Amino acid sequence: MLGIVEVEPGTELVDVVDDADHVIATVTRREMRAGRLQHRAVSIAVIGNDGRLLVHRRADTKDVWPGMWDIAAGGVVCAGEDYDTAARRELAEELGVRASNLVHLGAGRYVDESVALWGRGYVTIHDGPFTFTDGEIAEVRWVDRAGLEQLIAAERFVPDNLALLLPLLDLR
After folding, report:
1. Residue 146 lies inside a defined structural domain of this protein
2. Residue 110 lies in a domain
3. Torsion-angle region of residue 80: left (phi > 0), alpha (psi -120 to 50) or beta?
4. Which of 50, 117, 122, 150 qualifies as a FRET site for 31, CA 20 to 30 Å off?
């Protein structure tokens, strides 16, 4: 069973990693964001039994990429936490899903003007129900491949998941 602990935003501890994904320091999330320090993150795509992908628009209060659309739940891996545990925690926090069928798809490094991270991507099959209790998600939609392509063309999407996770997904 996952224990979700409430921590003041920005004060949770995050491991800073080098280009080989080895921990080199531990800082607060606030320090990590302010210094754009390379850290670990997880992304979990949720696909329904019909092959459609659950996408969501991030809350305007998010500390990075507020209000943008995303193809996955996920977030920062806490200090000392492993990727798999973080993926399960993020899925439970953001969508209220306790997935037993989480599949690791791959990993990679992503760097832009906003973030520097090592990310691991996962997928789970889940049709619902979902609960959005942590306030991080403003809107959700189910989309097929064509619908996703249309939405990507019309809206702004979180870039790390488009770069690292989308190529690994098998959407019908």
Report:
1. yes
2. yes
3. left
4. 122
Q: pTM for the full model?
A: 0.91
Write phi, then psi, for 102 (nearest 5 degrees).
Answer: -75, 125
Domain containing residue 153: 40-168
pLDDT of residue 103: 97
Q: What is the mean pLDDT of residues 35-55?
A: 97
Tokens of 96: 């209220």
Question: Which CATH number characterizes residue 91's domain?
Answer: 3.90.79.10
Task: Give me the number of domains the chain comprises.
Answer: 1
Distance set, CA 63 to CA 7, 9, 67, 85 (Å):
15, 9, 10, 22
Expressed in percent and rounded to 5, the helix, strand and coil fractions of the chain are 25, 35, 40
Give the bridge partners for 148, in sequence order. Answer: none
**Residue 10 within any structural domain of the chain:** no
Mean pLDDT, residues 139-160 taken together: 97
